[in-house]
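Extended Data, panel c. Modelled sequence:
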Amino acid sequence: MRRTSRSAIWTALCLAALAALCSGKPQAVAADPKAAHTKPADPFLSGPPLTLDQVRRLLHEDAIPLRRRKEAIQNRGVSFSMSPQALETLKEAGATGEILDLIQIKAPAGAVASVVVPKREPRGRLVVKCEPGECDVSLNGVPRGSSDGGVMELAGLTAGKWVVDVSKDGYLTHQNIVNIESDQTVSVAASLEPSYSTEETLGADLFQKIVSALGGEAGLAELASVQAAGSTTIARDGASVRWTVLMRNRPDRALFQARAGAILHEVGFVGNEFMASKKLKGEDAMELPTDFGYIRDNQLAALIMRLRNPRYKLIAKHPLPVPGEEFNLVAESTSDKIAIGLDSALRPQKVRITTEAGAGALSITYDDYLAGGHTFFPKTMEIKPDGRARGIDVRFDNVELHTDLKDTDYRLHGKALPMLAN
């Protein structure tokens, strides 16, 4: 007696089940023994056209030889057109190129759809650079995140006009309208202006950095009391006179000695009052006390003390000096304004003082800083009052800081002091 293997029986059952699936009709068992001798038509190969779902399921039936599956498609055809959606479905089901070509051929006449490749939407790229620090970026009112290191790059933007908003807490929002073009990069640079409250915060912080650069409180104490000798050139009305000069200065008192040849003049200050030597007459008697008053009142220690007056509001636009910025710190009161430019070490270098009425305005330049003790002293000063073609140039060659002089040392002496004589 002939035996049939279990695997052959299982394959036959799978074919019968799939044939029923593809034909859509249940298979009846032949009751007449004579019918077994008649070879029935293969419903798997001769059923109605296959639907897209039937083909998809057929592609997953690895138990059916590929040849048989291709024969079914060849003989029965398909009932759907090869649309982009159908093509995607068949590819996901594992259809080979050969089967896709066969389905394309067997698709209903007049319903064969060519595969349409969607046109790529034109897109471009945007680079946003912002100051200061990190900024928030929005496109067309939609937040896109924060910059990294002051830079944000946004790719894949649809071509067309975009509204770019760059913002930061405490700063005024910067807005640009840009035109994005396909495969192009557009750059936007935003330098945000601080709000007034932020300017005050930045100003107070920058002033403290200036104080620290001058040695802090210990350094300012040393600057407050100084004895220095050198020269000064005072120009007025097209003429100039060069004097050898000695200065003793502290907040409440000062003494100046000026010598030109055999001429020696003295001017002493106690508070805002001054007294001059008897030999100081004529034009010098009127001008020298004023010029020495300019030198005294604009010593670096006096400037810092003035800025500490609560009547001034300190304002800055940046935490630190930036290239091209003439004045980095501004002190404003109801009657005057002091603008200060700093050097690379955060020490005052250029100062402009203006009054509300425009009277008494002047420019000051500090240079050639000398390191001494805890602080730095500018050996060179240039003072130019408005209304003068030229001003007052001072150069100190010998400087002593934090002197321990008595009140009597600031009196008029009638003769050259040792530092001046030398």
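The mean pLDDT is 86. This feature is highlighted in the accompanying rendering.
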